[in-house]
Every structure is written in structure tokens, then in C-alpha cells.
Known about the structure:
The structure is a single chain. It is built from 9 helices and 16 strands. It is α+β, with helices and mostly antiparallel strands. Strands 8-7-9-6-1-16 form a 6-stranded mixed β-sheet, covered by helices on one side. Helix 1 (68-85) runs parallel beside helix 2, helix 2 (108-122) packs across helix 3 and helix 6 runs antiparallel to helix 7 (228-247). The radius of gyration is 19 Å and the shape is globular. The two termini are 23 Å apart. The model has no long low-confidence stretch (mean pLDDT 96). The chain binds (3R)-3-hydroxy-3-methyl-5-(phosphonooxy)pentanoic acid. (3R)-3-hydroxy-3-methyl-5-(phosphonooxy)pentanoic acid binds next to helix 2 and helix 4.
Amino acid sequence: MPIFSATATANPNIAFIKYWGNSNTALRLPANGSISMNLAALETRTRVTFDSSIPKDMFDLNGKRQSGAALERVVAHINLIRGLRGISTPVHVLSENNFPTGAGIASSAAAFAALTLAAVGALGLELPESNLSRLARRGSGSACRSIPTGFTEWRRGDSDLDSFAISIAPPEHWNLVDCIAVVEEKEKKVGSTEGHSLAASSPYQATRVADTPRRLDICRNTIQKRDFQALAQIVELDSNMMHAVMMTSRPALFFWEPATLNIIKSVQSWRKTGIPAAYTVDAGANIHVLCPAENAEDVKRRLSSLPGVLDVLSSQAGGPARLV
Ligand code: PMV
């Protein structure tokens, strides 16, 4: 086989309604549906080259050759895509993030969305968006939401065939900004893959999952109506519900640091004084504060002055994963 190569970019996303727990771990079928916004300012760019002259699979991330678990996870994903063409040609994956490495910003969504699109592109396969999203999901669940554009919803589905994300609004629909307060730069101790497997051990997970269709409906409506106050309520409730499950699973997972809780309380008090801002926290200590674009400078300044805040990144809504 000659050399086949393609490059793709993808943004990470921030979940407004969170995915936590799987109904099928091997297929990464989620316990519940989720909704998120792609983050335009943060980008992963990945080049995938299938080349029969290289001795073995290689993966470089931000200029560093990877081995062990990081390499294995990428190779497992590439194997899925090689399987579509029935080939075993060695691959070289070259990936770069435009955001600070080790800033504790979850990058697996952008990573597996870009990897999927580049690998599929390199093999000359033309797949519909739903199939790209299904494939990306197998690498990292939330990656399926980084395939379509703007604000996206991952329909839970009941099988590999019907569990994928679709766009529910383009990025220009709503000029929201995600201000990310970095309070921890270390790698998180418990990765989300391990976290998902603990979700069902919390007595609250079943209640959270059963209530998800209601939260999804509210969230989808608030996005359609661009109703920030209503979005703030549902996004904060959903984040708190996921962390309640995390804190009550066995073993208990506490992702918040003191700086995280201090920002949560600050955002609540800012909103009481009329500043539109809403917090949401993923499986880490860093905290995302959403606000309308006109309030972003003020919110970023306020976040920067709080104790323990090492950096504040910000992003508007982003487009789909794309071939370059
Ligand atoms: O896609 P994963 O396995 O990294 O899980 C993502 C989990 C959360 O970020 C906590 C929630 C979400 O929906 O993005």
C-alpha cells in the first residue's frame, strides 16, 4: 500500500448536560444523553499517515513520542478504522494542541474527533456525520459531540448504531463564552474512563439518569430561546447532580479543590448582583464559567483576581471537526 495521509482539526466541548456512566463500557454507550458546546478557541490538529514502510505504529503528541497507555488507546482506535478497510498498514499519528499542555483542559474529545476524521479521510472513506460521530464515541464518549457543529446533543441510543451526536444549533446561534479558570495544572488522578465505571455504585446515579430527559428538554429549550437565566439554572443543577454522584460513588471521587468551591460561590453571588454567569465543572478541579459575550471581559477579570486561579482561557462556540 502506498502512503495515505490526511489532517483534521477538532475542538473540545463543554457539556451543559453531562455524560457520566456507561450502559455498555466496551462500546461507550452512555447511561444518559448529553448536550454541549464546541470551544472554537481550543483546537487539536492531527495528521494520520498510513505508511507500509514504517516499522510500527507511532504516536507523537505535542512533539513527544508516546508509549504505553496513550499509544495503546490511539492504536485501539486506529484498529477500528483499519478494520473498515481490512488493512493492517502501520500508522504514524502526529497530534498538536493549541492550548497549554497539562493545563488540565480535557482534550480527549478533540483528540478522538480529530483522529477519527483524519484516519477516515486518509483511507478515502466517505462516511456520513452520524457514522463519524459513532466512531469518535468509541475513542472517548464526549468526542462524538465534537464532530457536529456548534451546540450538539448526543442522543443516548440503545446500540452502537443509534448512539451519536447531532447539531442542535450552529455556533453563531448564540454568542456565549466559556471562561475556563485553571486552578490545577496536574493530570487528574482518576481519568473519566475509570470514573464512568464507578458511576453505578452511587445510589444517586439511577435518579440522575432517570431525570436526564427532563434536563435535556429544558437545556435544549433554553438554547433555542437564548434564555441565559434558565440555562444557568439547568447547567449548574446538572453539574451539581453529576458531582453528587461522583462524591457518593465507591470509592468516592472528589474533583473540586478549595479554589473550585470558592469560584462556585463567587459565581452565585455575582449572579445575585445581576451579572449573567453560570458555572459547570467536569471530572477535574478546573471550572468553566459561561456568560454572554458582552460580559466575558468582566467575568474573566473577576475570575483572574480570585485565589488559586492560575490562568483564565476563554472561547466562543466552535464549528465541526474538519479535514484541512
Ligand atoms: O468522554 P469522557 O470519557 O472523557 O467523559 C467526559 C465526562 C465529562 O467531561 C465529566 C462530562 C461530559 O459530558 O463531557
